[in-house]
Design brief:
Largest sheet: 2 strands, antiparallel
Number of strands: 2
Number of helices: 28
Helix content: 55-70%
Strand order of the largest sheet: 1-2
Structural class: mainly alpha
Length: 671
C-alpha cells in the first residue's frame, strides 16, 4: 500500500528533494524499483534528483534499467551526463571472468573472448491436456557480469542524453563522453562482443545514421527492448544554434573514437588454434591460390563460415567497418595516418583531455586506421566488391607501414621484432600480400631501402610465434626479394642474412633463396650463351657460391667438439635446421651434373674444405651424440625419455642427409 511505501509516502512536497534522495538511498530495493519508475515519470522531480540516483541504480542492473532510462529522458541532461561518464570510469572489469568452464573451452576449436555457454531454462507447458509437471527446456541467454551490464546501460543512457543537449558547443560534451567510454572500454578483456555492439549502437544513435540492422542472432544481452518514449527538453537550452564547424568537429570525434574502438577490439582477440585476428593473410591466399590449400585440412574460409566464434569476429568488424563508412572515413585519410612516422600522441585514460579546438587536431588511431584500411582492402578482394582504394604498393607504402609499426627501432633490438600482436602482424602482412598479388611492388628509392624492408620481413618470419604468420612473412620476403631486377642486390641480401643473422631458422630460409636462384639461373637445357651476353646472372657463375661458401659451410670443428658434450649438443639442436638446409642444397649441387661445370662444384668442394671443416665435424658429432643419448649416457639423463626420442629422431635425419651428401662427394671425385 502507498502508506507503507516510503518512496511514495515521502514524495515531495511531503519532503524536500535532498531528504527524498536520502530516503530513496536507504529504502530502495529491487522490489521497489517499479515504484521508483512510476515516481520518475514526474519530469520536475526527475530533473531535480535524477542525476544523484545514478550511483544508486547502477549496482541494481539489470532490474534498474527502466529507472535509468527515465533519468536519461527526463533528468537534466548536462548534469546526468557528468554522472554517467563518472560511473563509466568507475566500472571495475578486473574481476570479470568468462562464464565458460575448462571443459567447454577445450571442446571449442576456436575460443573467442566473446563466447558464452548456452544455458537452458525450464518453462511450464500450459497447453491443453498438459500435465502440471510437464516442463519444456528452452534456450536462455547466459547471464552477463554486472560490469558488462553497467557499460551497456550507461551507453544506452548516453544515446538518449546527447541529442537532448542544445548548446553552442555540443562537441565539448561529446569529447568528454567519448573519452570516458573509451577509457572504460579499454579496461575490459572479456565479453568484447557485447561491449563493442553497445559502442556501435551508441555511435549510430549519435551520428544519426540509420543503416538497417544485421539479421538477428542469439544474443546474450539481458536488456529488454524499451519502447521509445518522449524525452524532456534541455532545461538549460539556449536559443542560439551550434557554432560553425561544430558538425564537422563532432563527426571527427566520432571518426577518431571508432578507430580507437576497432584497435582495442582487434588487439583483444585471442589467437588460439593459430587464427590471428581475422586471418586475413590465410583467407586471401586461399582465395587467390586455392591450389596451395592442404588437402583434407579445414580451410580458413570454412572455419569462418562454420565456427560461431569466428563468425562473431567477422560480424563485429563488419559492423564497425559499416559504421566507419557512414561516418565518411576516407581510405586516403586512413593511409595517410598509417604511414605518418610522427609518434602517436599517448593520452592518460585516468585524466580527461581538454576538448579540441578544431577538427584538424583530432587524431585517428594509427593501429585502428591500419585495421580499418586492411578490412576494406581485404573485403574488396575476398568478395570481389568494387572499392575506391588509394594506390598501394610495396614501395613506398607497405615499406612505410612496416617501418612505422614493426621496425621503428631495428638497430636497437632486433629480438623484439615478431613480438607484436598477432592481429596487427596479420593485417600488415595481408596488405603486403595483396600488393604483391596485384603486381604492385613499385621501386625502392635505393638499395638500402630494399634491404631494410627485407630484413624486417625476414625477422618477422623468424620470430613471430604464429606458424601461419611465419609462413606468410617468409612467402612475402621471398617474393619481394625475387622481384628485384639486380641479381647482385639479391645476392648481397642473401649473403648478409647468412653472415650476420642471429636466427638459424632465417639462415635456413636464406639457403632456400640461394637454392631457388641457382635452379632458376641454371636450367637443365639452357640456351647457348652468346659471346657478348651481358645479361648473364651472377647465379649462373661460380662467383655466387664462392662468395657464400664461408657462410654456407662454416667451420664446425670447434662448435661441435667442445669439451662439454651438453654444450655441443645444444649447439647442434639450435642450428639443425640450417645444417639440414645446407646439406640438402649441397646434395642438389652434387647430383645435378649440369651444374658441375658452370658453377665449378668440384672447385667449390675443395676451396671451401666442406669435407674437413663442415661434413667431418657433423659426422663425428653425430656419433658422440648417439652414444650420449644411450641409456646411462651423459645426455640421456638431461634430456629425459621424450628428449631422447626426439634427439635420436633428429640424428637419424641428420645421418641420412650426411650419407646422401657423402655419396654425392664420392661420385664427384670420380669425374
Amino acid at each position: 500500500m502507498a502508506d507503507d511505501n516510503p518512496l511514495l509516502k515521502a514524495l515531495p512536497p511531503a519532503t524536500d528533494y535532498l531528504t527524498y534522495l536520502t530516503i530513496i538511498e536507504y529504502n530502495l530495493t529491487p522490489e521497489r524499483l517499479p515504484t521508483l519508475h512510476d515516481v520518475l515519470q514526474d519530469a520536475t522531480l526527475t530533473t531535480n534528483i535524477g542525476w544523484d540516483l545514478i550511483h544508486i541504480l547502477v549496482p541494481l542492473l539489470p532490474d534498474s534499467e527502466q529507472c535509468l532510462q527515465d533519468i536519461a529522458r527526463l533528468g537534466n541532461p548536462r548534469e546526468v551526463i557528468l554522472k554517467v561518464t563518472e560511473s563509466l570510469r568507475l566500472i571495475d572489469f578486473d574481476n570479470v571472468e568468462e562464464d565458460v568452464n575448462e571443459e567447454d573451452a577445450q571442446a571449442t576449436s576456436v575460443h573467442s573472448d566473446a563466447s558464452h555457454p548456452v544455458k537452458t531454462a525450464p518453462v511450464l507447458s500450459h497447453g491443453e491436456g498438459a500435465s502440471e509437471s510437464v516442463t519444456q527446456a528452452v534456450e536462455a541467454p547466459p547471464e552477463l557480469p554486472l560490469p558488462v551490464l553497467q557499460f551497456i546501460a550507461l551507453l544506452s543512457m548516453l544515446s538518449v542524453l546527447h541529442p537532448r543537449i542544445k548548446t553552442k558547443y555540443p562537441s565539448r560534451f561529446l569529447s568528454t563522453t567519448l573519452q570516458a567510454v573509451l577509457a572504460s572500454y579499454s579496461e575490459a578483456s572479456t565479453h568484447m562482443e557485447e561491449l563493442t555492439s553497445a559502442v556501435v549502437k551508441f555511435v549510430k544513435a549519435l551520428s544519426g545514421n540509420r543503416r538497417p540492422q544485421l539479421p538477428p542472432r542469439r544474443s546474450s544481452s539481458q536488456f529488454n527492448v524499451l519502447v521509445k518514449q518522449q524525452s524532456a527538453p534541455d532545461p538549460e537550452a539556449h536559443a542560439e544554434s551550434p557554432a560553425p564547424g561544430e558538425a564537422k568537429m563532432q563527426n571527427r570525434l566520432l571518426q577518431s573514437f571508432v578507430t580507437h574502438t576497432l584497435e582495442q577490439y582487434m588487439l583483444s582477440l585471442s589467437s588460439s588454434q593459430d587464427v590471428p585476428g581475422l586471418a586475413w593473410c590465410s583467407r586471401l591466399q586461399e582465395k587467390v591460390h586455392p591450389e596451395r590449400t592442404v588437402p583434407r585440412k579445414v580451410s580458413f574460409a570454412d572455419m569462418f563460415a562454420n565456427e560461431e566464434n569466428l563468425q562473431i569476429r567477422s560480424s563485429i568488424v563488419g559492423q564497425v567497418e559499416a559504421l566507419a563508412r557512414d561516418l565518411a572515413i576516407d581510405s586516403r585519410d586512413l593511409l595517410a595516418c598509417i604511414i605518418d612516422r610522427k609518434p602517436e600522441p599517448v593520452g592518460d585514460s585516468n585524466r580527461e583531455d581538454e576538448p579540441p579546438i578544431s577538427a584538424e587536431e583530432i587524431p585517428l588511431s594509427k593501429s585502428g586506421s591500419l585495421f580499418l584500411f586492411a578490412a576494406r582492402e581485404i573485403r574488396d578482394s575476398l568478395y570481389d566488391s568494387p572499392g575506391d582504394a588509394p594506390d598501394f604498393s610495396i614501395f613506398p607504402e607497405h615499406d612505410q607501414i612496416l617501418q612505422t609499426f614493426i621496425n621503428s627501432s631495428l638497430a636497437s633490438d632486433v629480438g623484439t621484432i615478431g613480438s607484436e600482436p598477432a592481429a596487427l602482424v596479420d593485417a600488415i602482412l595481408a596488405l603486403g600480400l595483396l600488393a604483391v598479388e596485384n603486381d604492385q611492388v613499385g621501386e625502392p628509392a635505393e638499395n638500402e631501402t630494399f634491404t631494410r624492408y627485407l630484413q624486417t620481413l625476414s625477422l618477422l618470419s623468424a620470430n613471430t610465434p604464429s606458424p601461419t604468420l611465419r609462413y606468410h612473412a617468409h612467402y612475402l620476403t621471398s617474393t619481394v626479394l625475387r622481384s628485384h631486377p639486380s641479381d647482385n642486390v639479391r645476392l648481397a641480401f642473401i649473403r648478409d642474412t647468412l653472415e650476420h643473422c642471429p636466427f638459424e631458422n632465417l639462415k635456413a630460409s636464406a639457403v632456400g633463396w640461394i637454392k631457388g636462384e641457382t635452379i632458376e639461373a641454371n636450367p637443365p637445357n639452357p640456351h647457348p650463351p652468346q659471346a657478348d651476353d651481358e645479361d648473364q646472372s651472377v647465379f649462373n657463375t661460380p662467383l655466387a657460391l664462392t662468395t657464400l661458401s664461408p657462410f654456407l659451410f662454416p667451420d664446425l670443428t670447434h662448435d661441435l667438439s667442445a669439451p662439454s658434450l651438453a654444450e655441443s649438443w645444444m649447439t647442434l639442436k639450435l642450428n639443425l635446421s640450417f645444417y639440414l638446409a645446407t646439406l640438402n642444397f649441397y646434395y642438389l649441387l652434387l647430383t645435378a651434373t649440369h651444374l658441375h661445370e658452370p658453377l665449378d662444384i668440384g672447385g667449390l668442394h675443395t676451396s671451401a674444405d666442406t669435407g674437413g671443416s663442415f661434413l667431418g665435424p657433423l659426422v663425428q658429432a653425430s656419433k658422440r651424440f648417439r652414444a650420449g643419448l644411450q641409456h646411462g649416457g651423459e645426455l640421456a639423463d638431461e634430456e629425459g625419455e621424450e628428449g631422447v626420442r626426439a634427439g635420436v629422431a633428429d640424428l637419424e635425419i641428420l645421418d641420412d642427409a650426411l650419407e646422401r651428401v657423402t655419396g654425392g662427394v664420392a661420385a664427384l671425385n670420380q669425374e
